[in-house]
Design goal:
With about 230 residues, this protein is mainly alpha-helical. About 75% of the residues lie in helices and about 0% in strands.
Length: about 230
């Protein structure tokens, strides 16, 4: 199924993983020291807090996970479908994410834990945008599945089986994008602090605007062909 993915998916996927890596590095370096682009660690910490009857930590982590979930719900509402297809209002969703990241930045600057919640909401929304295409799973905010698939494919190759080079290349690019975003986020955080999130907002916002422009261009060309 990877062979069917157009170029804009490859470019968009790498940009979104870079943005997610950047956001997560800022969240980890913030006063909250809490990841926001994935929920596995948060769920484990929440379960540990429950066992220790640490209700304050439990409620906080539960909100982080719930906000990620709400972001995914919002993504589904906006895109209205799970099949990746140009024109399914991805531009609108990305612009909404841009707004959420800017709100997160302002809240972080005021030492509010809601900054973390809005960042988690934005990441849940982003991850819902390109979660599935037919039977191929693509994630942009967490790398566990990507690393697993890369390792499995290397194992296939070592055992003498064939390897899907396009899929391997895509996963490698996504992993590189997330890693690069983390490095960039940490470097920028040391210089401008929470304003680093403006860069992530610019990436998602501009991607959304370009997506809308591209879709409108395609529709205009289609309408002109029908009229002629």
């Amino acid at each position: 199924m990877i062979r069917k993915l157009p170029l804009w998916v490859w470019v968009g996927g790498v940009l979104l993983t870079l943005s997610a890596g950047l956001v997560n590095s800022v969240a980890l370096l913030s006063f909250s020291n809490q990841a926001v682009t994935h929920v596995t660690g948060s769920v484990t910490l929440a379960s540990t807090a429950l066992a220790q009857q640490n209700w304050a930590v439990l409620s906080h982590l539960s909100m982080v996970v719930f906000c990620f979930f709400l972001g995914a719900v919002l993504g589904g509402v906006i895109t209205r479908g799970s099949r990746l297809r140009l024109g399914r209002r991805y531009g609108v969703a990305l612009i909404v994410e841009c707004f959420l990241l800017l709100v997160s930045m302002m809240l972080f600057k005021h030492s509010s834990f809601w900054g973390q919640m809005f960042a988690s909401l934005a990441c849940g929304l982003q991850n819902a945008l390109v979660s599935t295409f037919s039977h191929a799973v693509i994630r942009t905010t967490h790398m566990s599945g990507i690393v697993t698939d890369l390792g499995a494919k290397i194992g296939y190759w070592l055992s003498g089986r064939g390897i899907d080079k396009r899929r391997f290349a895509l996963y490698l690019l996504l992993l590189s994008g997330f890693f690069t975003g983390g490095v960039l986020g940490a470097w920028c955080f040391g210089l401008v602090g929470y304003k680093t999130l403006i860069l992530a907002a610019l990436i998602t916002g501009l991607s959304g605007i370009l997506s809308l422009i591209h879709v409108m261009g395609i529709r205009r060309r289609s309408e002109s062909l029908v009229i002629s």
